């Protein structure tokens, strides 16, 4: 809700709009919560700042405190930030053989995740997958992948001693091509810290394999360091997505927010244990609740908002039954429509209004138009809103100017108001208003 719209809610709620002070107080707590969840400091700072601007001036729902309301706003924004575009589980693996490159620090869970993903692709998508370990530093690591392969029934590239990572990548590509595999997965070696040699090796492998997907595997429990890792890998190798492991642990998973904020790349999967089935596609809602550690508050505010909307609907319905429908009522309707998916969404739900919705659409009545109408009503005086009959030429001019629009728009609004007032009267008379109430829920 914009600052302007919140004016209406002031009358309807006990606490009115969020002040800059409310927001600041609540966000101080949110910032601590983010840092405790291991979100990196610069990311936490930037996030809180962006939310602060959005929260100030928004309406407080009856029966929650301003602090709780801010947490809800933060939660919603967190989900928005965490969620990438499209389906996180949809990997680009057409045009066989498609290469998938797995990168990350040592111990982050690359080998485990490679096998988990291979199992998923085999079982759920019927893909023929070949896995290859490029971890020449640790023979045990190559064995590890071979053992996992046997366990899950996925082929691994035979180990040849003395080859370097690039040679293994080339051989994997060949085998995948001639062996008729859909996908070949390259499990690279990690280091304890980012170093030049590691980056050069991964780059060389990338150039050979030209991977469709390069997934950065990050331990979900790492906090501040996650940012460096993401920046380095994305900058030097280029990644297409992130997998967060150890999300089954006690950590609150703040790394997820850091990853999204720093790389802008989608988080694809989360690892939830050592077992081969412990991999799920990323869900922003779940992780957001966990990062904030304030899930109860979010649920409370959602509940309160629902009740508030039901009360508001009840109040409006009573007015319609009495045949009352002024500009305030219209504005209430317009606000509600915007929230509920625009004109089409609302009208479509109201029996007998389908035709009107079609006319409205034909007349170019979209969400932008909705916002213009609301702006016009906002620039009316209290008296004018209560009694639209007052609106003569000079007042129309003033109102149009106030909203930065033409007088013709005011006329259109008045016409719509008259039409809606008539309809509302009819609906009110049709009795009990159960239908209208239903339509507004
Ligand atoms: P790599 O060095 O990056 O290849 O890491 P590994 O795949 O060898 O994993 C290191 C350790 O972390 C192993 O003991 C794995 O079983 C464990 N591990 C990997 N992913 C997860 C996870 O999602 N949850 C838990 N609890 N352990 C994991
Ligand atoms: Mg490994």
Automatic annotation (TrEMBL):
Gene3D superfamilies: P-loop containing nucleotide triphosphate hydrolases, Signal recognition particle SRP54, nucleotide-binding domain, Signal recognition particle, SRP54 subunit, M-domain. Its EC number is 3.6.5.4. It is found in: Cell inner membrane; Cytoplasm. GTP binds at residues 104-111, 187-191, 245-248. The keyword ATP-binding does not apply. GO terms for molecular function: 7S RNA binding; GTP binding; GTPase activity. Keywords: Cytoplasm, GTP-binding, Hydrolase, Nucleotide-binding, Ribonucleoprotein, RNA-binding, Signal recognition particle. GO terms for cellular component: plasma membrane; signal recognition particle. Residues 266-279 form the SRP54-type proteins GTP-binding domain. It holds the Pfam family SRP54. Composed of three domains: the N-terminal N domain, which is responsible for interactions with the ribosome, the central G domain, which binds GTP, and the C-terminal M domain, which binds the RNA and the signal sequence of the RNC. Part of the signal recognition particle protein translocation system, which is composed of SRP and FtsY. SRP is a ribonucleoprotein composed of Ffh and a 4.5S RNA molecule. Belongs to the GTP-binding SRP family. SRP54 subfamily. This is Signal recognition particle protein.
């Amino acid at each position: 809700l914009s600052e302007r719209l919140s004016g209406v809610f002031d009358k309807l709620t006990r606490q009115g709009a969020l002040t800059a002070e409310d927001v600041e107080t609540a966000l101080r707590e949110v910032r601590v919560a983010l840092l405790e969840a291991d979100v990196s400091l610069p990311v936490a700072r930037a996030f809180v700042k962006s939310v602060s601007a959005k929260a100030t001036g928004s309406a407080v729902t009856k029966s929650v405190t301003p602090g709780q309301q801010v947490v809800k706003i933060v939660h919603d924004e967190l989900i928005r930030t965490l969620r990438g575009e499209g389906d996180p589980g949809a990997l680009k693996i057409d045009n066989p053989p498609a290469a998938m490159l797995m990168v990350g620090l040592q111990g982050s869970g690359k080998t485990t995740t490679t096998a988990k993903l291979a199992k998923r692709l085999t079982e759920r998508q019927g893909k023929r997958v070949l896995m290859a370990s490029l971890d020449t530093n640790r023979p045990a690591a190559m064995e590890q992948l071979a053992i996992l392969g046997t366990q899950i029934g996925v082929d691994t590239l035979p180990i040849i001693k003395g080859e370097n990572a690039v040679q293994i990548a080339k051989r994997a590509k060949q085998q995948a091509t001639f062996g008729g595999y859909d996908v070949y997965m390259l499990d690279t070696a990690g280091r304890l810290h980012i170093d030049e040699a590691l980056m050069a090796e991964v780059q060389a492998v990338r150039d050979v394999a030209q991977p469709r997907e390069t997934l950065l595997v990050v331990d979900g429990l790492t906090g501040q360091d996650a940012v460096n890792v993401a920046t380095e890998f994305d900058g030097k190798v280029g990644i297409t997505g992130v997998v967060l492991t150890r999300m089954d642990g006690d950590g609150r998973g703040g790394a997820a927010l850091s990853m999204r904020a720093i790389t802008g790349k989608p988080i694809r999967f989360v690892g939830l244990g050592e077992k081969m089935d412990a991999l799920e596609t990323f869900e922003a809602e779940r992780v957001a609740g966990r990062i904030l550690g304030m899930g109860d508050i979010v649920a409370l505010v959602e509940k309160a908002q629902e009740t508030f909307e039901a009360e508001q609907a009840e109040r409006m319905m009573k007015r319609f039954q009495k045949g009352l429908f002024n500009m305030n009522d219209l504005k209430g309707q317009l606000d509600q429509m915007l929230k509920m998916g625009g004109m089409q969404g609302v009208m479509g739900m109201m029996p007998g209004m389908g035709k009107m919705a079609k006319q409205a659409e034909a007349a170019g009545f979209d969400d932008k138009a909705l916002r213009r109408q609301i702006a016009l009503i906002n620039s009316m005086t209290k008296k004018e809103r209560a009694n639209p009959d007052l609106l003569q030429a000079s007042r129309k001019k003033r109102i149009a100017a106030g909203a930065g629009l033409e007088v013709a728009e005011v006329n259109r609004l008045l016409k719509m108001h008259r039409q809606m007032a008539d309809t509302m009267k009819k609906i009110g008379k049709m009795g009990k208003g159960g239908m209208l109430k239903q339509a507004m829920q």
